[in-house]
Amino acid sequence: MAKINYNYRKLKQDYLFGEIAKRTTAFSNANPDNEIIKLGIGDTTLPLTETVVAGLKDAVEAMGTDEGYRGYGVQKGQGELRKAVAQYYKKTTGVSIDPDEVFISDGAKSDTANIQGIFAADSVIAVQDPVYPVYVDTAVLSGKTGENNDGNYDGIIYMPCGPEHGFFPEVLSVHVDIIYLCSPNNPTGTVASFEQLQSFVEYALKNNAIIIFDSAYSFFIQDDSVPRSIYEIERADECTIEISSFSKWAGFTGVRLGWTIVPKKLQTEDSKPGELNAMWERRQSTMFNGASNIIQAGGLAVLSDKGVEESNALAQYYMKNTHVIRAGLENIGIETYGGEHAPYIWLKVPEGFDSWSFFDELLNKVSVVGTPGEGFGSQGKGYFRLSGFNHLEKVQEAMKRIQANFDFRK
Ligand SMILES: *Cc1c(COP(=O)(O)O)cnc(C)c1O
After folding, report:
1. pLDDT tens digit string along 40-50?
2. Ligand 1 center to 216 CA (angstroms)
3. What are 84-136's pLDDT values in tens digits?
4. Which of the four pLDDT bands, split at 50, 70 and 90, describes residue 13?
5. Residue 288: predicted pLDDT
6. Cβ neighbours of residue 172 closer than 8 Å, sequence gap 6 or more
7. Strand partners, 180
8. Which of 71, 87, 267, 283 is the least buried, fewest Cβ under 10 Å from its Cβ?
């Protein structure tokens, strides 16, 4: 008799975005003339750049010709694109990566989830709290956790991220097997320092742990004062898999393309040299037939000189929005974090509010929608996320309304 995977029943309902949608729709139905401005979005809003569109078009045209038609490709991605990713790392971080260590995928979300599969099923997982929910939910579905108690799953180690250390966790004092780190961070918009990443690399080497580093927002980093890649830390290639994405940088959220770096030097206590790299290749060729060749041409266009320039301009546009949000909030006495190297502002809700009552206040008084921090973990209680992913005019209008209606200065 077939049975379901009971781990699905352990999963918490996706309460956060469902509840936001419910409250927003109710408000909109009751106030049909109010224009709602959404600053809760974790999705890009600007169109693809000229260079990317040309790259995609050329690839489509080629597919319609005898000479240019291509069927299945190499599962780990086209050699030219893997080389371009490696060159991009060299240019922006000085880090040397062998193109054979680069695996092209249909995005970072699936890779951050699937990567758990090359490690032992009983691996203990540690995550930042607040956290991008994918890492946790995947651990639940693959049976690595117990039940959910008050928002946290038994068996997962939550590393609290509060204002004391710039919303990056202190290095662990207990043993874990796999550590997810995300910097620049979603949801807090903050970024880890060289010292902070180094402390985790040292921990991982000492404890035979593996770090899964999500760098999907690295393209928003403004200067060399903070690491763009964890491989800028010495010996990180012995203990870290880095996962990144074209999504937020080049507007590929709906196009779908990302990459994962599995260094040949990566080691667990029981692996042979190069084995983890070969295992991920095996996993991808067994369960994935490669990213679309048309979309890979788009990725190659992003990584061309002109493509990089245009994509960076998209990122700068969202960063400008983020600065408008932060300045507006600070004018009315709200404490803000992040937003310097990431398109998110993490704010402390004013006294007298919790995350959800502040959500209601913004919605009801100024028709602005944000994201309650507690939706990302128990340490998000009392915080709130606003996002720079929108059109500048809308962001300016939202901040005008907020500043005209609120003043929390003491
Ligand atoms: C948006 C985002 C990604 C990107 O996911 P894709 O599947 O590449 O679109 C990855 N990690 C985090 C933390 C994100 O916010």
Report:
1. 988 999 999 99
2. 6
3. 999 999 999 999 999 999 999 999 999 999 999 999 999 999 999 999 999 99
4. confident
5. 96
6. 126, 157, 159, 179, 203
7. 212
8. 71
Pick from 110, 265, 131: nearest CA to 201: 265
Rg (alpha carbons) of the chain, rounded to whole number? 22
8 A C-beta contact, residue 249 and residue 219:
yes
Closest ligand 1 atom to Cα of 109: 7
Q: What is the mean pLDDT of the chain?
A: 97
Ligand 1 mutation target, pool 17, 45, 109, most atoms within 8 A of CB: 109
- Pick the closest to residue 315 from 345, 342, 346 (CA basis): 342
- Tell me, what amino acid is at 32? P
Select from 143, 158, 156, 234 the least CA-distant residue to 194: 234
Residue 155, phi-psi category: left (phi > 0), alpha (psi -120 to 50), beta (remainder)? left
What is the average pLDDT across 54-61? 98
Collect all residues with Cβ–Cβ distance below 8 Å to 47 and sequence separation of at least 6.
251
Asked if residue 113 has its Cβ within 6 Å of ligand 1, the reply is: no
Whether 186 lines ligand 1, by a CB cut-off of 6 Å, is yes
